[in-house]
Amino acid sequence: MIGAEMVAVASLRGFKTIGVGGPLMQEQGLQPLWDYNELPVSGVGDVIPKYFSLKNVFDVLRDAAESKKCLGIVAIDYPGFNMRLAALAKKWGKPMLYVAPPQVWAWKSKRASLFKQADNIRLAVFFDIEAKAYEQMNCKTIRLKHPIASWDHRYAETKSDMLLLPGSRRASALRNLPSFVTVAEKYRKVWAERNVGLLPDVIVVASREHLEVPLLVALEKFYDGRLPSWLKVVVAPKRLSDRLNFYSAYSAAVTSFGTSTLEMACVGIPFVACTAPDFLTFMMGKFMVKSEFLSLPNAIFGCGVTPEFIIRHKLNDRMAESIVDALFQQDLGTVEEIASRLRKSLNVGQTSSELMSEFLAQFVKS
């Protein structure tokens, strides 16, 4: 989504963009070097089996970046690839713009050392906590307006139904799904005890189209081939404004950690953040993560404004009940106040279009 705006600016100014990006970027003119859907993986246990495939993708990107035809490099998030590209850009002296660089405030702060004395690399961050963390490590950053800040909220009647967002990476989404569905079942039972009328339906959100079928197959296995009528899988709208308006119509959500926690908090509905990490990721995170909080809203505010849970082994009844209680205990007025404060905090800095225009200016002959 961020990359699409940048590609559009580059295309408008006559530049050719190549690399790896999703359908929105390709619609704006990006010429893909690899299938974007192969890249979304997270966690040590999920990355290791795909190591050689990911290495092939990186080799293609490295060769393209090293070419004399390549004027500059734009990287967005994805530190597993982009930190290696940044090291090469520093070595080559090739201009690079890195949007959403590594979260050094949370773990592996030594990564910031790469950007010291690298005048050819510009860092653009969305959150104040990122800017402060890099500043403490003597690295300059540019604040970038988060796309959520420009969301035009269309008020709609809130449904009693709930959302499940198990994740954007296939392996982690399938690992989270059974626990999320168990929570949804308990949520419906508690809802029936406290309310009258139809029980809420449960919508499992596939963040990308290619996740829809795997999620459906997993749910059918979970229910021995007989998927309940109250349970559906829906592909999330691609456009941010459409997606946020879609989310805002629901009464509650359970989401994995990541950008979805920010989206849920900004639309102003009760939600909890949960994940069931693989063993290696859990153990590494236990010893390496320095942040007290894992969800973005909590990290941004520096306090527990939204509930978060880490599910180890199989979800037990006690934790499932705690998650459901956390959903029902959230006051709607407080939730909306948090949403308003969060959207305001994200409305700081340049737009991605403005940032890209500045970056491209160095390649235009006066």
Main attributes of the structure:
single chain, 366 residues, alpha/beta, Rossmann fold, 2 domains, four-stranded parallel sheet, 15 helices, globular
Report on this model:
There is one protein chain. By secondary structure, the protein is an alpha/beta fold. It folds into two domains: 158 residues, Rossmann fold (3-Layer(aba) Sandwich), CATH 3.40.50; 185 residues, Rossmann fold. The chain has 15 helices and twelve strands. The strands form three sheets. A six-stranded parallel β-sheet has the order 9-8-7-10-11-12, with helices on both faces. It is globular. The model has no long low-confidence stretch (mean pLDDT 90).
Give a short synopsis of this structure:
With 366 residues, the chain is of the alpha/beta class.
Outline the secondary-structure elements.
Blueprint: H1 2-12, E1 18-19, H2 23-27, E2 31-32, H3 44-47, H4 51-66, E3 73-76, H5 79-92, E4 96-99, E5 121-125, H6 128-136, E6 142-143, E7 162-165, H7 170-194, E8 202-206, H8 212-222, E9 231-235, H9 240-248, E10 252-255, H10 259-267, E11 271-275, H11 279-288, H12 296-301, E12 308-310, H13 317-328, H14 332-346, H15 352-361
Parallel strand pairs: 1-2, 3-4, 4-5, 5-6, 7-8, 7-10, 8-9, 10-11, 11-12
Helix pairs in contact: 1-15, 4-5, 7-8, 7-13, 9-10
